[in-house]
Amino acid sequence: MTHTHDQLDAILNEQEAVQGGQETADEAAQRLYEEHSARLRAEAEAEANARKLTVAQEQWSEYLAQKDADASALLTRAEALQQLVAQLAAAAGGPGAAAAAAAAAGVPAQPPAPAPSVEAAAAEAAKLVEELGVAAAEARASAAQLRAETDRGKRSSEQANLSGDGDTEMKRLREDSSGDMEAEGEEGADSSMAATVEQQPGFIGPQLPPGGQPGGGNGAAAAEGMELHDTFRERARYIPLRLDMEERRLLRLLEAALSVSEYTDKVDVLSWRKKSGRVHAQIRDMCAILCGLVVAQDYRRGQQLITDRNFADLRTFFQDCFEVGRRHKIMNPEKMRETYGKLMYLLQDSCDGEIMELLEFRCVRPLRTVYALLEERGALALLDDPLMEAATAEIVAGELPRHEVQRRIKVKERAREQLARRHRSRAIGEDEILHCLYSISDNNSYLLFNRDPIDRMIGYLQSYFQPDHAEPGYSLAIQGGSQGARLTHSHSRQYAYVLQSLTLWREISHEMFKLWYLADADLLSERTRYHLQNTGQGLNRVQAAPLVGRAMQAILARCQRRIGGWVGSSVVHLGDHNVPNALMFIDKYTQVPRILNPVVLVLDELPKLCRDPQVAAYVQATFGGVEPCRKVILLDFFRHGFDGSGADNFFDAGSCIDGRLTSAWNWCSKIEKKSYHNIFKLAGFVGFDGDFK
Fold first, then answer.
1. In a 10 Å sphere around its CB, with 0-12 CB exposed, 13-18 middle and 19+ buried, how is residue 220 labelled?
2. Residue 531 backbone dihedrals phi, psi, to 5 degrees
3. Distance of CA 138 to the CA centre of its chain
4. Over the stretch 584-633, which tens digit does the pLDDT of each residue have?
5. CA distance 87 to 114
6. For residues 178-196, average pLDDT
7. Distance (Å, rounded) from C-alpha 451 to C-alpha 216?
8. Helix 613-623 and helix 591-609: axis angle, to 10°?
9. The whole model's pTM is what?
């Protein structure tokens, strides 16, 4: 214990200024460290290229399967056209001519049938020509993009100018260095290998792995879990408890401390000469934040902590502060947008064994959830009660009369009171039961504002567009290379592509609390460590996320079974330069309601806006009325919000799972240039990004 305190005192008291003579003595170690860092960067780049190759192979396999299905469909349509031609010939020249035409067409002669019209044959031929044209255009666009990406890859390899002798020399220098030098490498190969064993970072297909759901189990259990994924018992496992008044005080304290902290700015840099320097900086900043929290809460206690530096005595206080912040963010994804990243990266570093040894305690404890509280008090039967639906239902006023809204509120209150009386016991009181019910109601409120807009958008798609044919002037077809699109889809294929993308987003939003819970566990896992890497979007912490990955597999498989097919790639980026870690993954999909909510609000408000005669005259003159205006907005969004744009290659964008969201953000960035932007402004639109406070 004394030795650990001495180490901590030495770190906190050390001077940051370094004498010139010491710098000279460390030149050899610095050179070896720089060489080691360069080798690690080269290895990371090689791993990234290997992952790109894996993605390319999977996408190519899916593309060939899709082409096979397309070819079969075209063959069927061509055979139908042959039949029509034979029947037309029969109608024109009699039975003998029919047999001859059938023989010429290579089909067996059929008994006499009603003569088809020339218009039917012409329409069938037009459809065939259109589909063949789309297939040919898609093939040309794909070939051109593949050639361009191959050329870029060749140029990158030539510019790299890798030398085998240099690599051998670098390896020799590293192997000749002492064991301490290996420990000082900022991110050792062992941690990268551990992450690779835990989960190969990057790409997740639609199939469920052995064990099915996160947490293991056999296939039957996984299937049963998927059927029961929407029950209150399953949902409650991942629904955090609502904060009480004392916890809200701790939350304000934590947010104030994080808002002035520059932890990640100081720690996540590549200028460290050795790993010990970075660890010491982490310890100093962590202790500064911990001391600040205590001083703000109790001045005298904080003074004693600064003097004694015995952080372990206050472990419960620190764990409560950090757990409250994590729980609050899950319940309110729009909050703590500036401070949550610092909190998670601070806790991520605190899980390092060396730092835990110096602090003498673990900063992280499990999240408090509804299920955990009820299980602890032996009251899980509450979650199976038939009144749960009425007690936690979200009441939407909408067009309902006031007396009906009041009636539903009273029904909800009575259901809560009955549940509280029915399930109270010596272990759990009525207040705690009501606390659990309020927490589940918070989850339902979240779903109302984040999942329901996606349902509304699916409804708009199905109301204004048909999957089989396009209304003149309102085709969803897109052409690669035209208007920024990187995909080539016919109307029917784009309709299916948009529908399955919205369905996937809907399922992800429905299970967002679960994904947040699993992302928290992945980020703060002691088994999977991160490594710093320049991903092309700055320096990021790249870390595998096995729990989130398996959950995404289950969601994707469920969507594919529901839709009955899949257009495009089913690759999910996770733990690579596109989506470095679970935090980035979750943040990416919390953007979905920020994109769709403004669009849905504008579409809903448009009829109300047109009650103003001047606005109605503008809409009529510009778009031809309310319904044509809605169609213009929806057509543009469904075409160019799902066209594979947003990057210059299929690895960073395209038809993969994450590329669909990249395309939607790219559409958002161009909203000011749209012909209907004035309609958005009239409806009160200010932006897609929301408030960062």
1. exposed
2. -135, 145
3. 28
4. 999 889 999 999 999 999 999 999 999 999 999 999 999 999 999 999 99
5. 8
6. 37
7. 28
8. 110
9. 0.73
The pLDDT assigned to 520 comes to 94
463: left (phi over 0), alpha (psi -120 to 50) or beta: alpha
CA distance 420 to 434: 6
Measured in degrees and rounded to the nearest 5, phi and psi for residue 115 equal: -70, 125
Distance in angstroms (rounded) separating the CA atoms of residues 541 and 269: 11
No. of H helices and E strands in the chain?
30, 4
Measured CA to CA, the distance from residue 517 to residue 324 in angstroms comes to 13
Q: pLDDT value at position 274?
A: 60
> pLDDT at position 60, please?
61
218 — pLDDT class (breaks 50, 70, 90): very low
Q: In the predicted model, what is the mean pLDDT of the chain?
A: 76
In terms of Cα–Cα distance, which of 117, 129, 121 is closest to 81? 121
Distance CA 638, CA 477 (A): 10
As to burial, measured by CB atoms within 10 angstroms (0-12 exposed, 13-18 middle, 19+ buried), residue 475 is: middle
Distance CA 280, CA 173 (A): 26
Pick 67 or 535 by higher pLDDT.
Answer: 535
Percent of the chain with pLDDT over 90: 35
Please say whether the beta carbons of 118 and 88 come within 8 A: yes
Strand partners, 540: 533
Better pLDDT: 38 or 249? 249
Q: Provide the residue type at 509 as one letter.
A: S
Query: Is 601:683 a contact under the CB 8 Å cutoff?
Result: yes
Cβ atoms < 10 Å from Cβ of 523: 24
pLDDT attached to residue 261: 81
State both tokens at 59.
Answer: 């996408």
Q: 538 or 640: which carries more pLDDT confidence?
A: 640
- The answer for residues whose C-beta is within 8 angstroms of residue 571's C-beta and 6 or more apart is 55, 58, 59, 203, 204, 205, 656, 657
Query: Both tokens of residue 581?
Result: 């870690």
Residue 574: strand pairing partners: 202
Give the Cα separation of 319 and 609 in Å (integer).
51
Tell me how far CA of residue 580 lies from CA of 172, 202, 273, 644, in angstroms: 31, 9, 24, 21
Q: Is the pLDDT of residue 242 over 90?
A: yes
Residue labelled with tokens 């690669």: 480
3-class secondary structure, 376: helix
Q: Does the pLDDT of residue 111 top 80, yes or no?
A: no
Q: Which residue has the higher pLDDT, 7 or 282?
A: 282
- Contact call for residues 420 and 445 (beta carbons, < 8 A): no
Confidence at residue 16, expressed as pLDDT on a 0 to 100 scale: 43
Q: Please check whether residue 341 is in contact with residue 523, taking contact to mean a CB–CB distance below 8 angstroms.
A: no
Return d(Cα 645, Cα 652) in angstroms, integer.
10
Residues 655 and 568: beta-carbon distance below 8 Å: yes
Q: How far apart are CA 291 and CA 588, in angstroms?
A: 33
Return the pLDDT at 178: 36
Give the residue carrying structure tokens 């947008």: 337
Whole-number Å distance between alpha carbons of 550 and 209: 8
One-letter amino acid at 307 equals T
What is the mean predicted confidence (pLDDT) over 322-351?
A: 90
Q: How far is CA 219 from the centre of its chain?
A: 26
